[in-house]
Amino acid sequence: ETAFILKISSTSFDELEEFRLRILKHLKAKLSFQQVRVLRDDVSTFIANQLYPKINKLENSLRRYLSKFFLQRVGIDWWEVSANIKMLDKVKMRKKDRKDEFTNYIETDIEYADFDDLGTLIYKQSTGFNQPEKALEQVLNIDTLEKLNIFKDELQGNYVKYFKENFRDKNFEKLWIELFKIRNKVAHQGTFYKDELIRGEQLYEELIELIKNAEEKIDEL
C-alpha cells in the first residue's frame, strides 16, 4: 500500500474553493484511490470564521428580544409557561453543569437554550399551554360560550398570537430553519462551499433586520 500527502495552496479563494472538488474527483474517480482524507480545509475554516460572529450576534439578538417581549407581555415566569418540557429539562441540566459566578445573580434560562429552541418559542410554542395538562385543566373549567371563545384565542400558537405581523408575515420560520442548517455546520466543522457563505450572509442580514424592527415595536404593546 502507498500513501501520499498532497498540499494545495492558492492566493485566490475562489480558485481554491472550486478546485477542491475537482482534485478529489480526480483522485477518487480517475486514479481510483481507495481512501481520500482531508486533513486540513482552510477554505471551510475561512467560511466558518466569517459566518460564526454573525450567527452568534443574531442568536443573542433573538434572546434579547424574546426576554424583553415575554417579560412585558407575559410576566417574570414567561420561561416556565412558554418553553416545552424538553427545553425546560435541557436548561435545568445545563444550569447544574455550567455553574459559574454569574449564575448567582442572573437568570440563565434562555441563555442555555439552543439556536433551534429560540425559533421554536416563536413559531411552534403556545405560551400558557406548553404542557398538555395545562390545556386540559383549562378545558375542564369552561362552562360558558364566552370562556370557550377566550380559550380558543389563547390556545393559538405564539406565531399567530404574538408574532404574526413582525415574524410570520415576514417568513421568519423558513429563514431561521435554513440558517439553522448552516449554523450546525459551523458548530460541527462541516465542509463549506462559497454559495453557503453567500447565502448565510444573506440570511443574517434579513433576520437581524427583522429582529431589530420587531424590538423597536415592543414598547408599542
Sheet bearing the most strands, described?
Answer: none
Q: Give the percentage of residues in beta strands.
A: under 5%
What is the average of the pLDDT values? 87
Shape call: elongated
- Binned, the helix content reads 55-70%
Please report the total strand number as a whole number: 0
Radius of gyration equals 23 Å
- Uncertain residue segments: none
Total helical segments: 10
What is the CA-CA span between the terminal residues?
Answer: 71 Å
Give the ordered list of helices and strands: HHHHHHHHHH
Structural class, from secondary structure content? mainly alpha
Descriptive overview:
The chain contains 10 helices and no strands. It is mainly α. The chain is elongated and about 80 Å long.
List keywords for this structure.
mainly alpha; 221 residues; 63% helix
Question: Would you summarize the structure shown here?
Answer:
With 221 residues, this protein is an all-alpha fold.
